[in-house]
């Protein structure tokens, strides 16, 4: 019954474009909303089932179907009705005047006939609404007419202004003509004078000889000479006049041009005026049509009212139970007679025709609603089932947890918070450095006593806690090292690129190896603060030196990814880390030299005695020279310095004088064997400084370490690196396999693993849906690319890969952004070009969540870098079963091995590579990948599974770092003993 009611209303709402008399019942609406919600939360299995069904939810929803009259009354039932209406392909009702005319014409027949159906009152309302619509349209047309008249007025006044301008110009033209004539006359005069002058010159010798006796050989005051001079001067004046007139003439030509362009404009305006006038005439015709329609409608309305009254009377008669059959028959006859009298025969037939159509529609809507109801019901059952399963699982897990000796497996956050607590006591001078050291050692050894103490006094006051903890302090020897990373990035709290991933990935891996790892970062205003839920300001101020004076720094502490992190917030008027971005400021050199100095000051003032201080890239490269030049002599001398260069393209060079700000001695440092830049001698190079001053120097892959030792790859530092080759090594980065794990990833639509790849296909469907890519051929390979769009990444080849993918029959999704304005613009143009394309989508932004989905959804992953120190995307892609197509350079050469390379053992072959960084090279690798994908689906799947099982974790890389640290520390201790 409810479904029938819904259908009837939908049909009317659609046909008439009038306010709905009856709304979709609440139950129907909530079902629709629930279906949407449910659709989002389906488990993988349910989604698979659902995608197989021809779902009503996938039907296109037309948001344009409401007429202006009911747009204010939209509710969720409107969405529902739109779906139904569009499905049946009924015509849309438009509020534009010209369309309204035809809608009314179409509708008239229905009005008259529907008056005979069982809901006459609703039709009358419909009719009234229709008439109102018509009136509104008439109003609109009137407004348009007034507007057109205003336009005409405006055009006419423009025309008058133009005419005045033309008149003025014509006057000027006449004036100039007169002047030209005058000038011509004067020119003739000049020529005559010139002739006279020549004649006189000719006559002069003769006259001279005749009058020599009278005036002497040559007298400058002779009348002839004077006359000649006067004529010469007049000649010059006349020449000037001619010049002026010529200029005026050219002015006049200009004016003539302008006049002709104005005339053109005038004729254009004239023609648009004509057009407007004809439009106005058309509108007037429409208006008169509407007028007559309005009359017709009124007449019809009267007829319908009469009919209504008759019907009502007849129906009343029919409903009175006491009337006998004869009376009923008589009444029926009367009704029939009245019907015959009031309705023409053809109307009656049409009525039946439309009634049939209406009936069919009602039936089909009812069927559809029934299907929807059944589907929704089964969804509800499934959902209830999954909720139950989920609940059972939670109960099971919590029971398990209760049974487990949970204290053994406390998360890293627990220990890191404890460390932060100890450090805050130390910095606030509540405990001595030696007590802090003992407590820290107990913590990083995960000693049960400190664990129990912490758990026992969690609710106690700080003072009581302190007293209990101090009871624990005793000196203990430690096997692990105390490692401090000083960096500009750390994922996920402050990540720009791979550096951020390395700091947290390596830090966590070293922590797992029982070392005490801490990180110091700038406190950027634009950090992802939600990744440091326990962030707190310490009750301490650290003063650090800069530009000849001391500045205060506020210290914040919290845990990120289970690691204790200290954030430095400088109280410097330049607000160094309050810029809304990480890098790219004019004073980056100052910002990061300040930070490097403040980080060391924090270590120094906290009394920590780390074994390793590990700094990264040019931003914290200052730490190495500052440590040995200033802090080691001050007493912070327990540590060895490790410097990792993640990219030799950025070396942090600046005029040597800028080094003085952080307290380094410019004369001492700006030397060829220290920080002086190898090509510009008036500059210092911070990366060079760190190479020279560090005990361990690393870069992020073995191949890149070799490349930077060549003149081509070293960017001016190859000689420095060669001279430090004993302490320089390339260690391939790992990836954080917890953060990048397709079987637990919360950002992707469906989790999956190498053992069950079905979820991968569902992620592909999900991204196609999200990005509105075509679904038609599900087997099309999807090529992904996630990158910073900088020349290093081979932007021209990325661009080429987009077009080549389309040619090869694939789909392409790019996620990236560029700090280089012209590259960003270029890709914006490409994105625009493909914005409605079925197979290409470019998303020019940084979006961590979307990056996860792209890795999961793509079949192939493009990395055509010009050079690549390590590269993480190829490893992440493989972990998600996306096969890399990469250029053989740097870290890509150490992690992607071609499936067709016989020199590589089969178990390591994992992708498609090319050497020459041009379109042919890339084409060859892409074509091989597409062939493989299309022709050997089974082998492709095996390749995907193999890639997913490859170990790119930090474990082995962290072990290499550990070994380097240990050797360096051992050497230092041995040296100290000597
Ligand atoms: N536009 C983006 N949105 C989200 N993540 C991105 C984007 N661009 C790059 N990334 C991420 O940044 C990291 C890139 O690391 P890497 O391959 O070493 O390149 P680089 O450090 O040179 O930028 C990866 O984790 C990658 O997923």
TrEMBL record:
HAMAP family: Glycogen_synth (MF_00484). It comes from the Eukaryota. Residues 60-69 have a biased composition (Polar residues). NCBIfam families: glgA, PRK00654.2-4. Keywords: Amyloplast, Coiled coil, Glycosyltransferase, Plastid, Starch biosynthesis, Transferase, Transit peptide. InterPro entries: GS/SS, Starch_synth_cat_dom. It catalyses: [(1->4)-alpha-D-glucosyl](n) + ADP-alpha-D-glucose = [(1->4)-alpha-D-glucosyl](n+1) + ADP + H(+). Its EC number is 2.4.1.21. GO terms for biological process: starch biosynthetic process. This is starch synthase. It is found in: Plastid, Amyloplast. Belongs to the glycosyltransferase 1 family. Bacterial/plant glycogen synthase subfamily. Residues 482-722 form the Starch synthase catalytic domain. Residues 124-186, 245-310 form a coiled coil. PANTHER family: PTHR46083, STARCH SYNTHASE 4, CHLOROPLASTIC_AMYLOPLASTIC-RELATED (PTHR46083:SF2). Pathway: Glycan biosynthesis; starch biosynthesis. One of its GO terms (molecular function) is alpha-1,4-glucan glucosyltransferase (UDP-glucose donor) activity.
């Amino acid at each position: 019954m409810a479904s029938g009611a819904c259908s009837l209303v939908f049909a009317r709402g659609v046909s008439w474009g009038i306010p709905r008399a009856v709304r979709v019942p609440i139950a129907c609406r909530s079902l629709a909303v629930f279906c949407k919600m449910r659709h989002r939360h389906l488990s993988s299995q349910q989604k698979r089932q659902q995608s197989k069904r021809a779902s009503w939810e996938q039907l296109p929803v037309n948001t344009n179907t409401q007429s202006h009259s009911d747009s204010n009354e939209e509710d969720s039932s409107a969405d529902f009705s739109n779906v139904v209406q569009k499905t049946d392909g009924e015509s849309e009702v438009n509020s534009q005047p010209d369309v309204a005319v035809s809608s009314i014409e179409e509708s008239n027949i229905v009005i008259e006939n529907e008056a005979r159906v069982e809901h006459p009152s609703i039709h009358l309302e419909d009719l009234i609404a229709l008439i109102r619509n018509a009136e509104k349209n008439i109003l609109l047309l009137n407004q348009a007419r007034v507007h057109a008249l205003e336009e005409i007025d405006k055009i006419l006044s423009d025309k008058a202004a133009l005419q005045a301008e033309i008149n003025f110009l014509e006057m000027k033209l006449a004036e100039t003509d007169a002047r030209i004539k005058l000038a011509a006359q004067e020119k003739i005069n000049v020529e005559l004078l010139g002739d006279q002058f020549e004649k006189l010159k000719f006559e002069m010798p003769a006259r001279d000889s005749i009058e020599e006796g009278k005036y002497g050989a040559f007298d400058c005051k002779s009348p002839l000479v004077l006359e000649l001079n006067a004529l010469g001067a007049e000649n010059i004046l006349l020449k000037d006049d001619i010049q002026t007139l010529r200029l005026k003439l050219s002015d006049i030509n200009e004016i003539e041009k302008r006049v002709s362009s104005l005339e053109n404009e005038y004729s254009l305006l004239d023609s648009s005026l004509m057009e407007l006038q004809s439009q106005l005439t058309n509108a007037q015709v429409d208006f008169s049509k509407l007028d007559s329609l309005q009359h017709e409608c009124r007449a019809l309305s009267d007829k319908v009212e009469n009919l209504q009254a008759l019907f009502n009377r007849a129906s009343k008669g029919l409903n009175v139970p006491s009337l006998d059959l004869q009376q009923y028959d008589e009444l029926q006859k009367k009704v029939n007679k009245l019907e015959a009298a009031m309705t023409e025969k053809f109307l009656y037939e049409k009525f039946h025709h439309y009634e049939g159509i209406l009936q069919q529609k009602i039936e089909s809507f009812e069927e559809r609603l029934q299907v929807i109801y059944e589907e929704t019901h089964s969804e509800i059952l499934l959902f209830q089932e999954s909720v139950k399963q989920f609940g059972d699982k939670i109960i099971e897990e919590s029971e398990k947890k209760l049974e487990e000796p949970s204290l053994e497996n406390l998360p890293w956050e627990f220990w890191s918070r404890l460390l932060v607590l100890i450090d805050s006591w130390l910095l606030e001078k509540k405990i001595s450095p030696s007590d802090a050291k003992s407590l820290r050692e107990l913590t990083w050894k995960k000693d049960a006593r400190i664990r129990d103490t912490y758990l026992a006094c969690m609710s106690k006051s700080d003072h009581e806690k302190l007293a209990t903890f101090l009871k624990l302090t005793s000196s203990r020897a430690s096997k692990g090292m105390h490692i401090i990373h000083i960096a500009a990035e750390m994922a996920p709290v402050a990540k720009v690129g791979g550096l951020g991933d390395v700091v947290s990935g390596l830090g966590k891996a070293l922590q797992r190896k029982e070392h005490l790892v801490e990180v110091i970062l700038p406190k950027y205003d634009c950090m992802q603060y939600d990744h440091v839920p326990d962030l707190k300001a310490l009750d301490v101020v650290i003063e650090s030196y800069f530009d000849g004076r001391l500045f205060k720094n506020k210290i914040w502490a919290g845990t990120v990814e289970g690691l204790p992190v200290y954030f430095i917030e400088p109280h410097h008027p330049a607000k160094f880390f309050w810029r809304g971005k990480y890098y790219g400021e004019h004073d980056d050199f100052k910002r990061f030299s300040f930070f490097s100095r403040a980080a060391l000051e924090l270590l120094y003032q906290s009394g920590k005695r780390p074994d390793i201080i590990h700094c990264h890239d040019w931003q914290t490269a200052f730490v190495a020279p500052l440590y040995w030049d200033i802090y080691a002599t001050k007493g912070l001398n327990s540590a060895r310095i490790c410097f990792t260069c993640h990219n030799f393209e950025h070396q942090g060079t600046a005029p040597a004088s800028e080094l003085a700000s952080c307290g380094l001695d410019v004369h001492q440092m700006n030397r060829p064997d220290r920080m002086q830049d190898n090509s510009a001698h008036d500059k210092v190079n911070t990366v060079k400084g760190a190479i020279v001053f560090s005990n361990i120097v690393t870069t992020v892959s073995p191949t890149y370490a070799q490349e930077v030792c060549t003149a081509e790859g070293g960017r001016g530092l190859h000689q420095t690196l060669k001279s430090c080759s004993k302490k320089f090594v390339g260690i391939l980065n790992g990836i954080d396999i917890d953060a990048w794990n397709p079987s637990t990833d919360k950002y992707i639509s469906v989790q999956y693993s190498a053992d069950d790849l079905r979820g991968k296909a569902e992620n592909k469907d999900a991204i196609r849906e999200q990005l509105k890519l075509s679904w038609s051929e599900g087997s099309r390979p999807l090529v992904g690319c996630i990158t910073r769009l900088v020349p290093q990444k081979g932007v021209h080849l990325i661009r080429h890969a987009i077009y080549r993918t389309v040619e090869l029959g694939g789909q392409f999704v790019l996620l990236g952004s560029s700090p280089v304005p012209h590259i960003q613009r270029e890709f914006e143009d490409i994105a625009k070009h493909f914005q409605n394309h079925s197979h290409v989508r470019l998303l020019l932004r940084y979006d961590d969540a979307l990056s996860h989905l792209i890795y999961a959804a793509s079949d192939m992953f493009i990395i055509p870098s010009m050079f690549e120190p390590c590269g993480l995307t190829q490893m992440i892609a493989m972990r998600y079963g996306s096969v890399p197509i990469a250029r053989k350079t740097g870290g890509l050469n150490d992690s992607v091995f071609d499936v067709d390379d016989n020199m590589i053992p089969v178990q390591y072959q994992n992708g498609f590579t090319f050497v020459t960084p041009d379109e042919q090279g890339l084409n060859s690798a892409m074509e091989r990948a597409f062939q493989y994908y299309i022709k050997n689906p089974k082998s492709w799947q095996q390749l995907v599974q193999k890639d997913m099982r490859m170990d790119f974790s930090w474990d082995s890389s962290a072990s290499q770092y550990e070994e380097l640290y240990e050797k360096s520390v051992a050497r230092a201790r041995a040296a100290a003993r000597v």
